[in-house]
Every structure is written in C-alpha cells, then in structure tokens.
Specification:
- The protein has 14 helices and 15 strands.
- With 457 residues, the protein is an alpha+beta fold.
- It has 2 domains: 263 residues, no CATH class; 160 residues, no CATH class.
- Strands 1, 2, 5, 6, 7, 10, 11, 12, 13 and 14 form a 10-stranded mixed sheet that branches. Strands 4-3-15 form a 3-stranded antiparallel sheet, with no helix packed on it.
- A hairpin with a 4-residue loop joins β13 and β14.
- Bound molecules: zinc ion.
Length: 457
C-alpha cells in the first residue's frame, strides 16, 4: 500500500496524576475501590449539586505537557463546556469538557491541534446492567493531533514520545497512562474513527487492520463509509459501532456553574525537556532505546548520572539500562530501591568499567547487593588494587579545596553535595576506592572545617 495516501490522526486521553476528581474532592483512583464508593452528589450527577472549580493539578499537568511539545497556551479565558449525550454511565446527561488549554506545537513531524481537559464518565457493565460511578468525574487530558501520520509505525513513534514525556514529568497515572481514539482515511476517502484503544500495540493493530480493510474495499470498487468503529483487542480487528453523532448532536454550551479559568495564571515547576536530555545522551553515544529507558524513570536517571560521572556515559547507560534494569525486573522491585544502594552500585560499576571485575563477578555482586547483602569484603577480594586511606584523604582534601562553592552548600545543609564529592574522588581514583571510605574521609575534613570556622567566629 502506498503510504502517501494514508492519513492518520490520534486523540489521546491521558489520566493525569491527581488526588481528586475534576470537579469534586472524591479520590481519583478508581481501579481498586469497590463499586460506587468514591462518589458524592457532584460526580454522581445529583440534581442541584454544584461543581467545584476545575482541578488545578489537572490543568497544570495539561499546560506542562503542552509546553514540552511547543504548544501555545490559550490567550483567552478557557470555559468548561457541557457536551450532551445520553448513556447509562453519564448521570447528568452531559460530559464536561473544556475549551483548548493550548494549541499548535508538534510531536516529531506530526502537528498538534489542541489539548483540553474533560471528565471521564462512569463505567456501564453491558452484560449485568450495572453502573459504577467511581470513574465518573475523574480528570482526563485530551491531546488531539493533526492527521499528519502516514503509517502505524509513525503513530507508534508519536505515542512512544508522548509516553516518554509523561513518564519523565510524572504527569500521568502509572497504572493507566492513556487510552486512544484514532482516525484513519485512505486515498482522500471517508474518515473512519476507531475508539477506546488502551495499549500501544492495540493502536498499531487497529490501524493496520483498518488500513487493509479500507484498501480492500477501495480495490473492490466499494466506498469506505464514514463511521465510528470499536477495537476488538482479542481478535485485533475493528467492528462497527451503532451510534453516529455529529458535532451538532452534542449541543455544546458553556457550563453556567463553572467560571472561566486563565492558563496564564497557571504556575508549574519548569523541568528540563526530556527530549533535550535524549538528544544530549545520543550525542554521548548512548543508544536510543537505552536513553529512553533511563529518562523514563527518575531513579534510573539519577543512578545513571552518578555512575556516568565516574565511569563515563556509554558504560553507565549499558550498566543502568541493562544490568541494573534486569535485576529490578527479575525481582519485580520498584526502582526507588536504587537510592539506598548507590554506594555499592558505584563500586561495582567502577570495578567493572576499569576491568578489575569480570562481567560474571560484577553480576554476582549486583545480585548480592539487590538481595540486601553486603558486597564487602567480596568486592575487595575479587578486584584488588584499592587505594589506601592516605591517598583517599589526599584526593578528598584536594576535591574540597578546589570547590569552595560546594563546601558552602554543604555547610548550609545540602547533603547532596557529598555525593558530588564522592563522584569527583571516584573519578580521580578511577574507581579504586570504596565509597564508604571516601565518604568518611570527606566528612572528616568537611566537619573538622566546620568546627574550625565555628571556633574562629
Ligand atoms: Zn465526587
């Protein structure tokens, strides 16, 4: 099939990481609660129940995500609209959905149309006829792309980039980052929408299925109908949905209970753009997949930057995205466990990168460390050639005298500085010293200095 003729657009619904629902204070985590327990008159749509102002956390997440992709924040107040339709999971018979928070921008080559917030409806069980409203009112951000993609491969790449940003900024719920509606047309024909796909592989399957279904129709001389289809995840196919609405059917109107919000008042913590980090890592010779693995996880990124300072970025990326990641996966442990192991990880990494430790021994020591055991004295016996206390003291003293700014920060209680100094010393000694010994040498000097300057006052 000629890719030139295919036009694909996506509407991605993202569950932002918020404590509360969009317009009330009910908990926004709906997966584990018994049915209809996280509800109140507002999200259950009781007559007369007045909504609270839009959840600021959700709005902030939307603006922050928009900024990463160069979208332009709305330059006028944003109203919340009512989108009317009837379905058992929607007790108020309208869904609240905002005007665009931001417009324009791009992910890779694909243009973005807009991002807005909305509330999720409840869940209707078709077979039992029951409704669970725990999900009703849960915040959603909807990111709409232009129909600029030409293949399922491009759609997958766009979603991977979106996921990377969401993970790096920790904006989406870990248990359920997004669900996707796609639209696809072939050769300028009618547009078909496929709704409610909740995995990356599902999006690829649905698009591939639709592309070949529509191509077959066209080559048989039949026309493709404009319709909405449902994705059957089990069979990897799409099926027609009965209903078909047009924009007018929804009778959009501004919600009179909710005032407009201004996006230029939204304050959020400006973090580094994950794609700039990706670019930097790639120029350092780190592979794309390894870089993405590391950027997507704060603890891996932290471990990488510390290990890279001692052993170089290339080695570190393979060690972190490969060896360390494998141990975490094998144990199904959370990466936050790494923080308490940094000293040991640095020693093993330094030993391995300087070839004092064999691959096998490094893996063995890593397992010991992850199992909560001590790598001493085993690491000494396996590697050998450590610097003595005097050398460590000298190196520590030199690092301290050369960085008065960092010492100042340490005095003000910034303990992170200690890790910085450990990194400097490790680098200087090419890993041939134990982090515990370096720390005690550093502390000895820094704390004696502090006592000295106290007396001097
Ligand atoms: Zn509620």
């Amino acid at each position: 099939m000629d890719e030139e003729e295919v036009k694909i657009g996506l509407e991605v619904h993202i569950y932002p990481r918020t404590e509360c629902k969009m317009f009330c204070r009910c908990s926004a985590s709906f997966l584990e609660s018994p049915p209809n327990t996280n509800i109140c008159p507002i999200c259950a749509g009781h007559p007369g129940a007045k909504p609270m102002p839009p959840n600021a956390q959700a709005v902030r997440a939307g603006i922050q995500l928009a900024a990463v992709f160069g979208m332009k924040a709305a330059d006028k107040p944003v109203f919340t609209m009512r989108k009317h339709y009837f379905y058992p999971d929607l007790p108020s018979n309208y869904q609240r959905t905002s005007e665009p928070l931001a417009v324009g921008g791009a992910i890779g080559e694909c243009g973005l149309r807009e991002i807005h917030f909305e509330e999720d409806p409840g869940q209707y069980d078709l077979t039992k006829g029951t409704v669970d409203l725990n999900r009703s009112g849960v915040p959603l951000l909807e990111l709409v792309t232009e129909p600029d993609m030409r293949s399922s491969r491009e759609a997958r790449a766009l979603l991977s980039d979106l996921l990377l940003a969401l993970e790096y900024l920790q904006l989406s719920r870990a248990e359920m980052p997004f669900k996707v509606d796609t639209n696809i047309s072939i050769g300028g024909g009618n547009r078909v929408e496929v709704k409610n796909i909740n995995s990356l592989s599902g999006v690829v399957k649905a698009l591939d299925f639709e592309a070949s279904r529509q191509t077959e129709l066209c080559s048989a001389g039949k026309s493709v109908e404009q319709e909405t289809r449902h994705f059957d995840a089990v069979n990897g196919s799409t099926l027609p949905l009965r209903y078909k609405e047009t924009l007018e059917d929804y009778r959009y109107m501004p919600d009179p209970d909710i005032g407009p919000i201004r996006t230029d008042n939204v304050v959020y913590e400006q973090q580094e753009n994950p794609f700039l980090i990706l670019k930097r890592m790639t120029t350092e010779g780190i592979s794309g997949p390894d870089a993405r693995t590391i950027i997507a996880d704060r603890h891996l990124l932290d471990a990488h930057s510390r290990i890279a300072a001692v052993c170089g970025p290339r080695f570190s990326s393979v060690f972190v995205a490969g060896d360390i990641r494998a141990e975490l996966n094998y144990r199904k442990s959370d990466s936050s466990a790494l923080d308490s192991m940094m000293g040991g990880l640095l020693e093993i990494a330094a030993g391995r990168s300087s070839s004092r430790l064999s691959n096998l021994n490094a893996t063995m020591l890593l397992r010991t460390l992850f199992d909560g055991g001590s790598i001493h004295p085993a690491i000494d016996e396996l590697s050998g050639g450590w610097y003595g206390r005097e050398t460590i003291n000298d190196v520590a003293a030199r690092a301290i005298s050369e960085h008065p700014d960092a010492v100042e920060k340490y005095r003000k209680g910034n303990m992170e500085v200690l890790n910085y100094f450990v990194g400097l010393c490790m680098k200087e000694m090419r890993g041939k010293a134990k982090s515990a010994d370096i720390i005690s040498a550093l502390r000895g000097i820094l704390d004696a200095d502090a006592r000295g300057s106290e007396k001097g006052k």
